[in-house]
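// run 5 | inverse folding | seed 20
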């Protein structure tokens, strides 16, 4: 009987020890899961904060870029640069008028210069045509000179002359049945010249 009792006592102790070990293991596993969950939560929070920060930075950068673009469009510099681009076709006109660089002729042919002059009754490459092309070309090349050297001293003259000249261009476009889209840039140029004049006038006033 004593042996049986001792065996029971030993078995009870072993079972109790096993239960305690299992409980400890379960607790350790629970703590590990809790730690892993905390790490995942912290990582997710960090990623979320990074995404929010990046999004905020992107929005701020986009807003800044948009504000700068709007400011540029409102400034006199925008139409000044747009109209100054006419120096390139102006140079082609001058070179063709004096027959300095024959290689420009295919470019002018693509621009349908000959047909446009025929519409207004001027024969292409005639003395009259060459004189007109030289004058038009020189005036276009001088646009940037007026903007940045003469400080807009000829703004009103350019606005008036460009309006008359570009209306004639639109007439020629319609006569040779060019796409209407060709006239959009012409109208933009007319508006640009008048905008330059009024912005310069407002500074003087």
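// decoded
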């Amino acid at each position: 009987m004593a042996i049986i009792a001792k065996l029971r006592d030993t078995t009870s102790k072993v079972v109790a020890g096993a239960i305690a070990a299992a409980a400890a293991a379960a607790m350790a596993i629970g703590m590990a899961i809790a730690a892993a969950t905390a790490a995942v939560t912290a990582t997710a929070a960090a990623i979320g904060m990074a995404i929010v920060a990046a999004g905020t930075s992107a929005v701020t950068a986009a807003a800044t870029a948009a504000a700068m673009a709007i400011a540029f469009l409102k400034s006199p510099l925008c139409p000044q640069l747009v109209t100054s681009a006419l120096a390139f076709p102006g140079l082609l006109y001058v070179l063709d008028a004096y027959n300095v660089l024959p290689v420009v002729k295919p470019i002018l042919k693509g621009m349908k210069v000959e047909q446009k002059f025929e519409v207004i009754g001027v024969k292409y490459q005639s003395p009259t045509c060459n004189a007109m092309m030289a004058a038009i070309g020189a005036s276009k090349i001088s646009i940037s000179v007026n903007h940045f050297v003469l400080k807009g001293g000829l703004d009103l003259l350019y606005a008036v002359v460009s309006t008359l000249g570009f209306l004639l261009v639109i007439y020629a476009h319609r006569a040779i049945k060019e796409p209407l889209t060709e006239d959009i840039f012409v109208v933009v140029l007319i508006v640009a010249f008048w905008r330059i004049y009024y912005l310069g006038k407002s500074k003087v006033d």
